[in-house]
Write a structure and sequence with these properties.
Layout: H1 2-45, H2 48-62, H3 66-79, H4 86-111, H5 115-123, H6 128-158, H7 170-181, H8 184-212
Helix pairs in contact: 1-2, 1-4, 1-7, 2-4, 3-4, 4-6, 5-6, 6-8, 7-8
Length: 218
Amino acid sequence: MKALHVMLQAAPSLLRGLQVTFEVSVLSVALSLAAGVLFGVVLAYGPLLLRLPIRAAVDVVRGIPVLVLIFFVYYVFPAMGIELGAFVAAVAALSLFSACQVAEITRGAITSVHHGQMEAARAIGLTFPQCLFSVIFPQALRRFLPPWINSVTDTVKGSALVSLLGIVDLMLAIQQVIGRTYEPMPFYILGALIYLAINYALSSASRRLEAHFAYVRD
């Protein structure tokens, strides 16, 4: 009963932290989706001079831990004269990391479509954007959605790292409440359950999409 009472008292702080977690996650997912799809299209169809730097950037960023990337953006960019607040730096780092994941997902989904589809579309006079949006993307969508939702789940989990920059997200809000109440176990369990609920919903959506877009259904 005491733990429940303490949780109810801390609910406003936790809800504000959860709101920040959603803001960071949604912004990161939206920005990474736009940039990642663009990078993926360039990797699949772009000229060599564009493919090479993007290929190098994607490989480098994917090989760096998210935490290191967050600290790099937060500390190195101001040293270069680019002033970023903690929130902007966190969103930029998470978006960059996720965009590189989305770029690979997009490239794989696009290249899984037989090259004859693009050739046939160009043969009937469609422009390149028309080929993409009317022919390639609809076929690639079924391969793109399930792994993309998995990357969204990773972004939500990675958002917990922004607390290390002093951003009061759900994780830091929990730590602050623990510092006041000296009741670590209930709040860490509560935080784990909240993250589990969010990511389980995303994973369930991924499974449903995978079943919906499957080539063969039972």
